[in-house]
């Protein structure tokens, strides 16, 4: 099941990260920790960082460097208007897919 879950997560991870950021801004490790608390324990921290960079380049999140007690400044990510729009589309698509999958599961009713 873990392998199938990992494969299914690949297509939805951007939406999951944006949903996490819709509550409040966060830096990469903090996002990873939040997701792990919610049961996404198999998500590698490096995967989160790579997706954050991609989302930043696509203009879905804003980044602010904040001083850290240890080491270099942290990049705190927050959802911007483009990200909110993308997240809304993600939830619409997710609802569409889950409804269709549930129909298939129930025998195509």
Structure description:
It is a single chain. 62% of the residues lie in helices and 11% in strands. By secondary structure, it is mainly alpha-helical. The chain has a single domain, classed as Arc Repressor Mutant, subunit A, CATH 1.10.10. This is PadR family transcriptional regulator.
- Describe the biggest sheet? 2 strands, antiparallel
What oligomeric arrangement do these chains adopt?
A: single chain
- Total E-strand runs: 2
Mean pLDDT: 91
Distance between the termini: 27 Å
Number of domains: 1
**Level-1 CATH class name:** Mainly Alpha
The CATH level-2 architecture is identified as Orthogonal Bundle
Into which percent range does the helicity of residues fall? 55-70%
Strand order of the largest sheet: 1-2
CATH fold name:
Arc Repressor Mutant, subunit A
Shape: globular
Broad structural category: mainly alpha
Number of helices: 5
Element string (H = helix, E = strand): HHHHEEH
Strand content: 5-15%
CATH superfamily: Winged helix-like DNA-binding domain superfamily/Winged helix DNA-binding domain
Radius of gyration: 16 Å
Low-pLDDT stretches are none
Pfam family, one: PadR
InterPro entries: Metal_resp_DNA-bind_regulator, Tscrpt_reg_PadR_N, WH-like_DNA-bd_sf, WH_DNA-bd_sf
Protein name: PadR family transcriptional regulator
Organism: Streptomyces buecherae
How does the SSE layout of this entry go?
Elements: H1 2-10, H2 13-23, H3 28-37, H4 45-57, E1 61-66, E2 74-79, H5 81-105
Antiparallel strand pairs: 1-2
Structural descriptors:
11% strand, mainly alpha, 62% helix, 109 residues, 2 strands, two-stranded antiparallel ribbon, Arc Repressor Mutant, subunit A
